[in-house]
Design goal:
This protein has 291 residues and is α/β, with parallel strands linked by helices. Strands 1-2-3-4-6-5 form a six-stranded mixed beta sheet, with helices on both faces. Strand 2 and strand 3 form a beta hairpin.
Length: 291
């Protein structure tokens, strides 16, 4: 059995952003956010593109997964394979947009529901912290009361998670292990042969994917690999400013390559840091080396 990598954007969305596998997303969110009792998520609905906040201050908002639970709480789930500068500000910005745009004309503030973001990171974001998971919320600095529990941010740093299969104990640990290690297996691990874990493994079986779906998956994998390489090369050469703006020569070349392969513009934007309008400009001028 050959498993696709959950860290691939296409595979990640199929597992955690599909109506077909809602129970997987519910299990994942409940475990990562440590939700129990009345706070437990019992059901979710994925929000369509019309409900996702877009184009504020000319910034592009490209979310991996956006859903709402039975109580109205909203969840943003994002996979990030490579670190970009000020990623923390981007996450706060997305959450603030998802929070503020709930209020339509003539609506009361009572209608605004809390927003929770879960970021799965394939890099170390908090170098001074040993734990692979961090959860941030609005707290009273003296009493630590969470009276203003409107925004919550959870970060999972995959490189910090080093447990072996036989060491897995909690549902949370099994999900993190699944995301980080399942691609290395040739059969479903014993620890994951139950409920949602087995379903997730089966969904990643390469043999169950259509040729068209695999083509899209493989193009995204090439794109992600190229972008990661461009970042590493630029960092080695001291081109941090170019990476920050997403306009270094290699990034533009990668965008051109992906456009020629027919990769979706939004996926290119998410992975390269270029704006959608800039990518559209590149598509009009295929030989252009500048934006």
């Amino acid at each position: 059995m050959i498993f696709l990598d959950p860290r691939n954007d296409i595979a990640f969305k199929k597992i955690f952003g599909s109506d077909e596998h809602k129970n997987i997303t519910i299990s994942f969110l409940n475990s990562i956010l440590e939700l129990t009792g009345k706070k437990t998520i019992a059901s979710i609905d994925f929000l369509n593109n019309e409900q996702v906040p877009q184009h504020i201050d000319k910034k592009e908002n490209i979310l991996d997964i956006f859903c709402v639970d039975q109580a109205g709480n909203r969840y943003i789930v994002e996979l990030q394979i490579a670190r970009v500068k000020e990623f923390d500000k981007r996450i706060v910005y997305y959450a603030a947009k998802a929070y503020s745009t709930q209020l339509g004309k003539g609506m009361d503030y009572f209608n605004i529901m809390p927003v929770v973001t879960v970021s799965v990171l394939d890099f170390v974001m908090f170098s001074t912290k040993k734990s692979y998971k961090s959860i941030y919320s609005l707290l009273d600095t003296k009493t630590h009361d969470d009276d203003l529990n409107e925004l919550t941010f959870a970060f999972v740093e995959l490189p910090k998670f080093n447990k072996k299969e036989h060491e897995l104990e909690t549902v949370e640990e099994k999900w993190i292990y699944f995301i980080k290690e399942i691609k290395k297996h040739t059969e479903i691990p014993t620890a994951l042969r139950q409920n949602e874990f087995e379903e997730a493994c089966q969904a990643l079986n390469r043999m169950t994917w259509s040729e068209q779906a695999l083509d899209i998956h493989d193009k995204e994998a090439i794109m992600a690999s190229s972008y990661r390489s461009s970042i590493e090369l630029a960092q080695e050469e001291g081109l941090e400013k170019g990476i920050e703006k997403g306009r270094d020569q290699r990034t533009i070349e990668v965008a051109h390559e992906l456009l020629s392969c027919g990769v979706n513009i939004e996926i290119i934007a998410k992975s390269t840091g270029l704006l959608i309008d800039e990518i559209k400009q590149l598509s009009k001028y295929p030989n252009s080396k500048k934006l």
